[in-house]
Amino acid sequence: MKEKVEQYLQEIKSFAANTQDEIENFRLKYLSKKGIVQVMFAEMRNVAPEARKEMGQLLNSLKNEAQNKFDELKEAASGTGTEAGKKVDLTLPTDFANLGSRHPLSIVRNEIASIFSRIGFKVNEGPEIEDDWHNFTALNFAAEHPARDMQDTFFIEKNPDILLRTHTSSVQVRVMQKEKPPIRAIFPGRVFRNEAISARAHCIFHQVEGLYIDENVSFADLKQTLYYFATEFFGADTQIRLRPSYFPFTEPSAEMDVSCFICGGEGCKICKNTGWVEILGCGMVDPNVLEFCGIDPVKYTGFAFGMGIERIAMLKYQINDIRLFFENDVRFLKQFESTL
Ligand code: DAH
Fold first, then answer.
1. How far apart are CA 262 and CA 259, in angstroms?
2. Most exposed of 106, 141, 186, 282 (fewest Cβ within 10 Å)?
3. Mind listing the pLDDT tens digit for each residue in 149-160?
């Protein structure tokens, strides 16, 4: 019996398996209920009492060897997936998973949201598919107003009342209809215009809209809010300048430039040698718009502003082609790092 057990021990030690079936057969042969280990233990009955101790130890080592071999084979098989029997060194470093990075437009949007949230602005979103009323009429674009031609719109052919929003200003309308002043929020989102795609323009891009409605909101509040934003985003030395402009939904309206953060106002390629770069449109919400949205224009005033996220990201990172944002080329995308 002793020789038999020793022979089994040898067999177990030199056993190798290449497939799951071979491992299972090993288990059946040695470790199952009717397997060799159990059979040998049963035979202890026939061993002379003085030899039992030695035999017991031998059988225990047979059992342990078989169990260890089986565990080893199983672990190796699960480690490699296919090549059973191949030992895997679990202490080796793994291939690191490629985690990707945040998109530059998300980084800029998050930064803008974070700056405004510090002065009490909430973040809201609205639908990308809009109706004519929210995108144009309620924003004081008269039916035949030439301002409607300012934006080439994607209309739904079957129902020209439905369109892809051309700006996030439509969210102003939805929020004013739903909420009572004071309203202080920004609305980031995707907008659509029927434009030829080039290095400077795309038919899909992103904007952040801002709105503040309360009693006694003045142009000075608008200016100070935007000055705060400009210095937080572009740096403490940034200057701003407001130029008179026109939008149907604000009166008065302005466009805001920031002093060129590349050359500090000296003149360079980014600011086309003017020392200033335009970053947004803004103004005092037109009383007609307040009225359309159910807010009393005698009691309340407010300001609004809107900026293009691509434009700001292009300035910030000095990107010269807007199409890069939408091509999903990882060589481009992985250059941007952020904690936001
Ligand atoms: N909606 C304008 C556009 O897409 C941007 C804009 C200008 C938004 C002035 C505003 C604003 O809220 O007051 O060009």
1. 9
2. 106
3. 655 889 888 888
* CA-150 nearest atom, ligand 1: 14
- Alpha-carbon gap, residue 212 to 228, rounded angstroms: 15
Token digits of residue 184 = 């202080």
Which residue has the least CA distance to atom 3 on ligand 1? Answer: 167
Low-confidence ranges of the chain (pLDDT < 70): 79-86, 146-151, 339-340
Q: Give the CA count within 13 Å in the CB-facing half-sphere of 65.
A: 20
User: Which atom of ligand 1 has the smallest separation from the CA of 285?
Assistant: 13
Instruction: Name all residues whose Cβ lies below 6 A of ligand 1.
Output: 167, 169, 209, 247, 250, 281-283, 304-306
Cβ neighbours for 291, distance < 8 A, ≥ 6 positions apart: 297
Give the C-alpha separation, 3 to 271, whole Å. Answer: 93
Structure confidence at residue 86 (pLDDT): 62
| H/E stretch holding 21 | helix 20-30
Residues 24-76: tens digit of each pLDDT: 999 999 999 999 999 999 998 888 899 889 999 999 999 999 999 999 888 88
Report the greatest alpha carbon distance in the chain: 113
Dist CA 283 CA 285 (whole Å): 6
pTM: 0.73
Eight-state DSSP code of residue 19: S
The string of DSSP codes covering 214-242 is ETT--HHHHHHHHHHHHHHHH-TT--EEE
The whole-number pLDDT of residue 150 equals: 54
**Other Cβ atoms closer than 10 A to 21:** 10
List of residues 6+ apart from 253 with CB closer than 8 A: 244, 245, 246, 247, 281, 282, 283
Cβ distance 305 to 281 under 8 Å?
A: yes
Which ranges in the chain belong to alpha helices (H)? 2-14, 20-30, 36-42, 52-80, 104-117, 132-135, 169-178, 219-234, 287-292, 309-317, 330-333
**End-to-end Cα separation, the chain, in angstroms:** 72
State whether residue 117 is helix, strand or coil: helix
Task: Establish how many alpha carbons lie within 13 A of residue 157's alpha carbon, considering only the half-sphere containing its beta carbon.
Answer: 0
What atom in ligand 1 is closest to the CA of residue 306?
8
Determine the 3-state secondary structure of 135 from DSSP: helix
